[in-house]
Specification:
One of its GO terms (cellular component) is cytosol. Pfam families: GalKase_gal_bdg, GHMP_kinases_C, GHMP_kinases_N. It comes from Phytoactinopolyspora alkaliphila. This is Galactokinase. The protein has 404 residues and is an alpha+beta fold. The protein has a domain of 186 residues: Ribosomal Protein S5, domain 2 (2-Layer Sandwich), CATH 3.30.230.10. Helix content is 38%, strand content 21%. A 6-stranded mixed beta sheet has the order 5-4-6-3-1-13. A 4-stranded antiparallel beta sheet has the order 10-11-9-12. A 3-stranded antiparallel beta sheet has the order 2-7-8, with helices on both faces. A hairpin with a 6-residue loop joins strand 10 and strand 11. Helix 1 crosses helix 3. The N and C termini lie close together (11 Å). 48% of the residues are buried. The structure holds adenosine-5'-diphosphate and magnesium ion. The site of adenosine-5'-diphosphate has 16 residues, from strand 6 and helix 2.
């Protein structure tokens, strides 16, 4: 008898904690109701056939033992999962894999993690591996980094694996751990409205890299391995220290090989940063440190059952991303302002920025009012009509075997 196991894994949205993960900081994503399912049936001929109901995703077939580069396109996410599992010694069988999903792709809701995690939980069940959720999340990340070639952190997969109804997931990028925190939006009469601005991601990769390098350089100048190491110090103290080290030519920086951005061309006097670089670096550091604190403050409020009070923290996060980290675009700012004016308790861009979505915390019966206000503001400026929908914190990945 052939057994079919169905793995199901959600997309995610980040409630707060943006551009903190690569600085060893905190983020607070939640699993959303939109999910990807992988129906997986074992095969005994050592091959994997994959198909997806998503438009434009062609079916294909490959061996269980492919290596990065062998399979490209969407199927690489599935081949990557087989590869990652086999890399750590799990002898997963060939399989017939059918994917179905209502997670929008490329909207910043992590359809890629949902795809990886749905296949992972199905294979885990099929092969009787009994892997821990965090282990599977890291294997999903490994598939995406090592096989697909996308240099992402583990936050998306951790959210998809650890999500839970009525809870958000506190992700600690330093220890790569996740903790579920109660966030009963429905109980508080609230929903999260997602506004996909449909603004294209302009310059996102280059700008992301530049910010990452600036933060790594700041940590390096402060003599720590990541900005997380100065998180417990008052922000103003850290910024004064940064001012001091940047204005004083330092004698012994680490050797170039250990430098955070060794690929950048060496500056003639790398110890003395130009004045506007210093101002920019201060802002970037201020965002990361204050954003981590906002995540912790949000967790504090949620643990105290004060869900309605997190709104101002969300809005403060947006202001910091707009003014200090400078990763917003007009569509994101207009959407946040319109949502707040229409009565949202708080609103912010979510994801990496330079396009993508915002979230707004709204009363359950107000999502249409707020959505319409954003649509009108977009129409007035000639922006593409945004796509809006609501989410509540939902269950994480799980596998189901047939009962018969
Ligand atoms: P995001 O994760 O933010 O949605 P990514 O670019 O990381 O965006 O991942 C999107 C890619 O993941 C798609 O282009 C496709 O290759 C793959 N993918 C996601 N969902 C599906 C699906 N249901 N069927 C086939 N491929 C999918
Ligand atoms: Mg993705």
């Amino acid at each position: 008898m052939t057994t079919t196991v169905t793995g199901s894994a959600p997309g995610r949205v980040n409630l707060i904690g943006e551009h903190t993960d690569y600085n060893g900081g905190f983020a607070l994503p939640l699993a959303i109701p939109q999910r990807t399912t992988a129906s997986v049936t074992a095969r005994d001929n050592g091959t994997v056939s994959v198909s997806s109901s998503a438009s434009g995703m062609e079916p294909t077939e490959f061996g269980v033992d492919t290596v990065p580069g062998d399979v490209t396109g969407w199927a690489a996410y599935v081949a990557g999962v087989f590869w990652a599992l086999r890399q750590v010694g799990h002898d997963v069988p060939g399989a017939d894999v059918r994917i179905d999903s209502d997670v929008p792709t490329g909207a910043g809701l992590s359809s890629s993690a949902a795809l990886e995690c749905s296949v992972l939980v199905a294979l885990d069940s099929l092969a009787g591996l009994k892997l821990e959720p965090s282990t599977m999340a890291l294997l999903g990340q490994q598939a995406e980094n090592g096989y697909v070639g996308a240099p992402t952190g583990a936050m998306d997969q951790m959210a998809s694996m650890h999500g839970r109804d009525g809870h958000v997931v506190l992700f600690d990028a330093a220890s790569v751990t996740a903790e579920q925190v109660p966030c009963d939006l429905s109980g508080a009469g609230l929903e999260l409205l997602i506004v996909d601005t449909r603004a294209p991601h302009r310059h996102a990769d280059g700008e992301y890299g530049a910010r990452r390098r600036t933060c790594e350089e700041a940590a390096h100048r402060l003599g720590v391995s990541s900005l997380r190491d100065v998180q417990d110090d008052p922000v103003d103290d850290v910024l004064s220290r940064l001012d001091r080290v940047l204005s004083t030519p330092s004698i012994s920086l680490s050797p170039p090989s250990a430098h955070a951005d060794s690929s950048a061309p060496a500056r003639a006097d790398a110890d003395e940063a130009p004045a506007d670089d210093v101002a920019v670096m201060r802002r970037r550091v201020r965002h990361v440190l204050t954003e981590n604190q906002r995540v912790l403050d949000t967790v504090g409020l949620l643990r105290a059952g004060r869900v309605r009070d997190i709104g101002p923290l969300l809005t403060a996060s947006h202001v910091s991303l707009r003014d200090d980290y400078q990763v917003t675009v007009a569509e994101l700012d207009v959407a946040v302002d319109a949502a707040l004016e229409a009565g949202a308790l708080g609103a912010r861009m979510t994801g990496g920025g330079f396009g993508g979505s915002i979230i707004a915390l709204v009363d359950t019966d107000q999502d249409h009012v707020v959505g319409d206000a954003v649509r009108e503001a977009f129409a007035r400026r000639g922006f593409t009509e945004p796509h809006t929908f609501t989410v509540v914190p939902s269950a994480g990945a799980s596998a189901r075997r047939p009962s018969r």
